[in-house]
Amino acid sequence: MPRSGAGWTLADAPRLDDKTAIVTGANSGLGLETARGFARLGATVVLACRNLDAAKTASDDIAGTVADARLEIVHLDLSDLESVREAADLIRDNHRKIDILVNNAGVMSRERQLTADGFELDFGTNFLGHYALTGRLLDRINTSVGRIVTVTSAVHRKGSIDFDDLPMERGYSVPAAYARSKLAELMFAIELQRRLAADGMAGASLASHPGASYSGVMREQNKILNWAFTSPNMRWLLDRFVQEPDQGALPTLRAATDPAAFGGQFYGPSGRLEATGSPVLVSPADRAVDPVAAQKLWDVAEELTGVEYSFD
User: Among 49, 83, 173, 274, which one has the highest count of C-beta atoms within 10 angstroms of its own C-beta?
Assistant: First the structure.
């Protein structure tokens, strides 16, 4: 429980000395601070990243701030299902159990692009890639009574899924594609918990969102947005509404570690519009908890990725 009179911080989390945590997209921003938080709690942390040079820099950064940090790097490109398979196989070879999997990595493309497998990039990377990775690691997570935390966004509330146009060949826009991918991620996290619970499995699926945080997603955006989020001249204004990555990572860290948290919960910032503040339980959009739509989304993901979950 949080200390009396204070919001939840990493000081409220239990030690993770004998635990293994995997963080996708751990080379920068929210993923880096999430990985650093686990390292501070004593976990062995696997940085699963597309850019190995950036991952090495991130690993050195964490090692420079956390004494005796136990860190590993695995190459993972979520936009390529073959890379997902290879990364999962390597993780399985190195770890008989996984205590925490954080599906954090994400892209927000500034134009319509396709993944290596022909999916719209945001949907294919943010949702389908994580769906495939989680499925390939699920038995290792269940062995450890572990937690799966999927990092979505408050913009999921603006998302919608047209199952007749998953490639978004009609009406593509940057905000619509990103919001759709984040809605799909949250639907996946909630549906996964339904299935885990129905089959009596020990693992738990939760979700989080960071609010408004300075994150690597802005690297993919147009020059005006990139400038606004990186210019020192704008920090005095943005700091009123945007929090640093170490604060944005707290909802994920709480979902992953709080002994009082349980499957199906959704954590985000406590402040106005859920933009900033200490991590608390928040409510998903109604469409994110629609079991009929979630079943359809699950069937689509299974068909497109070829990954079938085993709930034995």
Answer: 49
